[in-house]
């Protein structure tokens, strides 16, 4: 049995990971400040579900990763720290870059600085956004990532660099995982899939940026948590891995999947491309496959059906906006 700290564990990905670890019999401590970037009620519900699953195996610490004393308390006794706490919106980061750097960069360093046991394994939640506007696809971990196009992307690249330096100085094993657009039940309400589902259901126009040909690599959340679990037991002292679906879907195709699953037609409101958006994300996952045994097992069609079933249930119950 491991004792795992999950920062950001009240959020979308963190809450799925928490449930999986608890069901496997591990002890989990979540550190999360319940940031109001989106509905805090959703985060409280995630924590309540974890408490119901985990009982005494689960502990929730409300606190901020920028506070050293809070981090010191949170990391004690933990064998593994999965660091997912962050401000995660690309567009919001353009509006408020200083806050993003404060949480995602200073917060990451503050957390790392409080880990004193050299055996503690760290898994850092990075992002495909570090690839910026790279045109060579699929994106491989060896590609240059020196030109992020949003403060959020820059903060994730900075987080990877801080992880490397900390590993170099202290010797702890670290895996940085670049997640490619993650979706599934509990997804953040401002993310495209969730936002589109809401607007299609409400009969509202969906903001359709660009000409519909921009393409994304979508990854179902259970595949991401499988990758995180594998990285907790990785063999390399320091590594960076892509975790993606390894397939690309255009915006047009994505909306088509949602229309089918929701049984309603979308009204597309065409808008120009947004600053910070990238034309394509596409993961080369061969390194994660070789070294972590990672496999993306959920096709988009199946994952979208599961997401929409969850969304409609939550919507009827008034638990999502
Ligand atoms: N969802 C995706 O598609 C995606 C893609 C790439 C990378 N990521 C990364 O994965 C991680 C989780 O993303 P998510 O989609 O679950 O987001 P999320 O917003 O649902 O979860 C992040 C959690 O961090 C918490 N948090 C924010 N600031 C904090 C602070 N100062 N102290 C403590 N907790 C704080 C929030 O309250 C939230 O519960 C993030 O690091 C994000 O950058 C997500």
Q: Globular, elongated, flat, extended or rod-shaped: what is the shape?
A: globular
CATH class categorisation: Alpha Beta
Residue stretches low in confidence (pLDDT < 50, at least 5 long) are none
| DSSP E strands, number | 13
Biggest sheet details: 7 strands, parallel
Structural account:
The protein is built from eleven helices and 13 strands. The mean pLDDT is 96. It has a single domain (3-316), classed as Rossmann fold (3-Layer(aba) Sandwich). The strands form four sheets. Strands 3-2-1-4-5-6-11 form a seven-stranded parallel β-sheet, sandwiched between helices. Strands 7-10 form a two-stranded parallel ribbon. Strands 8-13 form a two-stranded parallel sheet. Helix content is 42%, strand content 18%. The structure holds nicotinamide-adenine-dinucleotide. Nicotinamide-adenine-dinucleotide (NAD) is lined by residues 7-8, 10-14, 32-35, 43, 64-66, 84-88, 103, 107, 125, 127, 179, 181-182, 188.
Keywords:
binds nicotinamide-adenine-dinucleotide, 7-stranded parallel β-sheet, alpha/beta, 13 strands, globular, Rossmann fold, single chain, two-stranded parallel ribbon
Summarize the entry for a quick read.
Helices cover 42% and strands 18% of the residues. The chain is α/β, with parallel strands linked by helices. Nicotinamide-adenine-dinucleotide (NAD) binds next to helix 1, helix 5 and strand 5.
């Amino acid at each position: 049995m491991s004792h795992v700290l999950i920062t950001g564990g009240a959020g979308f990905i963190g809450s799925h990971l928490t449930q999986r670890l608890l069901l496997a019999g591990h002890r989990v401590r979540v550190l999360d400040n319940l940031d109001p970037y989106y509905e805090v009620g959703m985060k409280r519900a995630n924590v309540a579900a974890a408490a119901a699953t985990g009982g005494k195996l689960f502990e929730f610490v409300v606190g901020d990763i920028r506070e050293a004393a809070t981090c010191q308390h949170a990391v004690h006794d933990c064998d593994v720290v999965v660091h997912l706490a962050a401000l995660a919106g690309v567009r919001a980061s353009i509006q408020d870059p200083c806050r993003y750097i404060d949480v995602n960069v200073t917060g990451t360093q503050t957390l790392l600085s409080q880990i004193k046991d050299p055996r503690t394994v760290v898994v850092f939640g990075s992002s495909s956004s570090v690839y910026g506007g790279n045109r060579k696809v699929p994106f491989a971990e060896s590609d240059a990532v020196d030109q992020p196009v949003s403060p959020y992307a820059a903060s994730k690249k900075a987080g990877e660099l801080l992880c490397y330096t900390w590993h170099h100085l202290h010797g702890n094993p670290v895996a940085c995982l670049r997640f490619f657009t993650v979706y599934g039940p509990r997804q953040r309400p401002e993310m495209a899939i969730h936002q589109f589902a809401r607007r299609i259901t409400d009969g509202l126009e969906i903001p359709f940026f660009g000409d519909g040909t921009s393409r994304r690599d979508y990854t179902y959340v259970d595949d991401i948590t499988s990758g995180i679990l594998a990285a907790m037991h990785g063999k390399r002292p320091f590594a960076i891995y892509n975790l993606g679906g390894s397939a690309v879907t255009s915006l047009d195709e994505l909306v088509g999947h949602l229309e089918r699953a929701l049984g309603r037609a979308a009204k597309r409101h065409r808008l120009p491309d947004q600053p910070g958006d990238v034309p394509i994300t596409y993961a080369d996952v061969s390194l994660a496959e070789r070294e972590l045994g990672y496999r993306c097992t959920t096709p988009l069609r199946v994952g979208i059906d599961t997401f929409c079933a969850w969304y409609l249930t939550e919507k009827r119950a008034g638990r999502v906006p």
